[in-house]
Amino acid sequence: MGLLSAAARCVVRGADRMSQWTSKRGPRTFRKSRGAKGTGVRTREGKFVLIKEMVPELVVPDLTGFKLKPYVSYRAPAGEDTPLTAARLFQEVVAPAVERDFRAGTFDPERLDKYGFEPTQEGKLFQLYPKNFPR
């Protein structure tokens, strides 16, 4: 493939992809900026109408007397979070409620749905073990 044929192919097929991306080439709503959203609309006469509901409202808490700094060094040690397992979730959420009811004498083995136990998965959108589960 010669130099002339490669240049001709570039002009015919890929010139548009290589040109600069401007608002002339994008859709009507494209504005070349840093991703900020518009806070109003332009009328037919070209005037800009500000819409109060479109102006972002920043909610910042009062941090007077706050001791922590907003910067975390990369040299800080990694956290010691252990992964959440089913057994750990049971021990932290369900076991205290079962123990409290057992000590109070109100524990009923027939009403385990009170603690989140579901004996059947029928009627659920995502079943735990559907019939077509690959084995």
| Largest beta-sheet details | 2 strands, antiparallel
Order of helices and strands: HEEH
Number of strands: 2
Poorly predicted ranges (pLDDT <50, ≥5 residues)?
Answer: none
Q: How are the strands of the biggest sheet laid out side by side?
A: 1-2
The coarse overall form would be elongated
Number of helices: 2
Q: Over all CA atoms, what is the radius of gyration?
A: 31 Å
Termini separation: 55 Å
Which descriptors would you attach to this protein?
single chain, 135 residues, mainly alpha, two-stranded antiparallel ribbon, 26% helix
Walkthrough of the structure:
- The protein is mainly alpha-helical.
- The protein is built from two helices and two strands; from the N terminus they run αββα.
- It has helices spanning 3-18, 86-104, and strands at residues 40-42, 48-50.
- Strands 1-2 form a two-stranded antiparallel ribbon.
- The chain is elongated and about 85 Å long.
- The mean pLDDT is 79.
Write the layout of secondary structure elements.
Layout: H1 3-18, E1 40-42, E2 48-50, H2 86-104
Antiparallel strand pairs: 1-2
Summarize the structure.
With 135 residues, this protein is mainly alpha-helical. It is built from two helices and two strands, in the order αββα.
